[in-house]
């Protein structure tokens, strides 16, 4: 590896502070903290840490050296995509921002927010099938078409790609791991099934990149060579990152859902036993 090749310290230690992105992240974090402070001791610190972690994941993806090197090495680009599609949406949803809004937001905002929660449109929007479809389209269309290289050349398309990834991740994970009050209730078994199905979505482009004998995205040939890297070897690494990294993340979520369901069922069983003992 040449001296110009990025290290972990270089990726995470060099930052470019884009004004619009920083303002959006600070605004979201400030509003969330304001709501949490209004509830004082009635809001879980774990949820606050999770939401802030989601914002931090977005910051790493969009402002750190990861973004700088994303158009130079495909492997770094795939790390960025996993942060945008999976890590950030999962952490943001576990922070339960909608639940916080309904409890701590201004009365006018709470009334406005309560209406769509029970609406048919939100019921359709939180369908796991729709979430998986949107996620699959976002992953497959961008990675297996000319849109990927177009995004490398056009800043507007690149920004749109990032927005699509975050939105697709939120749509996929909201009914499966989210802590917000949504109109659709999905059983634990179904949630595990949808998460495992999403593993396949991540595996398809990952496997294609990992085993393709030729460079799929020619835009990476010259930048990789300038960094002393083989574009093909880096592409194979990128495929492994998406395939194994994405699948491992989905599997971890599925196991967490299953464990939480088992713990909840054990607690219900204990309550039933206590109730039966009192009646006896």
> Percent helix among the residues?
over 70%
**Major sheet size, sense and barrel closure:** none
Order of helices and strands: HHHHHHHHHHHHHH
Shape: globular
What would you report as the Rg, rounded to the nearest angstrom?
21 Å
Strand content: under 5%
Per DSSP E runs of 2 or more residues, the count of β-strands stands at: 0
Number of discrete helical segments: 14
Please indicate the count of domains. Answer: 1
Q: Which structural class matches the secondary elements?
A: mainly alpha
Termini distance?
A: 73 Å
The mean pLDDT is 89
Low-confidence stretches: none
What does the model show?
This protein has 280 residues and is an all-alpha fold. It has one domain (11-279). It has 14 helices and no strands. It has helices spanning 8-13, 19-39, 45-63, 65-69, 74-94, 97-104, 107-117, 120-125, 128-143, 147-153, 155-177, 188-211, 221-226, 231-279. The longest helix has 49 residues, at 231-279. The chain is globular. The model has no long low-confidence stretch (mean pLDDT 89).
Structure keywords:
single chain, 280 residues, mainly alpha, 14 helices, 0% strand
Helix-strand blueprint:
Layout: H1 8-13, H2 19-39, H3 45-63, H4 65-69, H5 74-94, H6 97-104, H7 107-117, H8 120-125, H9 128-143, H10 147-153, H11 155-177, H12 188-211, H13 221-226, H14 231-279
């Amino acid at each position: 590896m040449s001296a110009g090749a990025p290290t972990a310290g270089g990726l995470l230690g060099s930052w470019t502070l884009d004004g619009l992105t920083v303002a959006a992240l600070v605004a979201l974090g400030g509003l969330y903290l304001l709501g949490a402070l209004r509830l004082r001791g009635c809001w879980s610190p774990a949820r606050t840490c999770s939401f802030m972690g989601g914002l931090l994941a977005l910051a790493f993806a969009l402002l750190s050296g990861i973004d700088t090197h994303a158009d130079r090495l495909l492997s770094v680009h795939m790390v960025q995509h996993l942060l945008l599609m999976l890590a950030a949406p999962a952490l943001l949803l576990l922070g339960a921002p909608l639940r916080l809004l309904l409890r701590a937001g201004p009365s006018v905002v709470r009334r406005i927010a309560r209406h769509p929660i029970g609406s048919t449109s939100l019921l359709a929007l939180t369908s796991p099938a729709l979430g998986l479809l949107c996620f699959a389209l976002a992953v497959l269309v961008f990675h297996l078409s000319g849109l990927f290289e177009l995004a490398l050349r056009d800043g507007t398309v690149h920004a749109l790609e990032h927005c699509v990834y975050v939105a697709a991740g939120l749509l996929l994970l909201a009914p499966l791991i989210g802590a917000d009050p949504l109109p659709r209730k999905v059983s634990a078994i179904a949630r595990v099934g949808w998460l495992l199905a999403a593993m396949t979505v991540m595996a398809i482009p990952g496997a294609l990149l990992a085993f393709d004998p030729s460079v799929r995205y020619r835009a990476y040939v010259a930048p990789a060579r300038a960094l002393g890297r083989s574009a093909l070897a880096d592409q194979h690494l990128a495929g492994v990152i998406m395939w194994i990294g994405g699948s491992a993340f989905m599997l971890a979520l599925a196991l967490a859902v299953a464990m939480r369901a088992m713990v909840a069922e054990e607690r219900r069983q204990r309550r039933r036993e206590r109730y039966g003992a009192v009646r006896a």
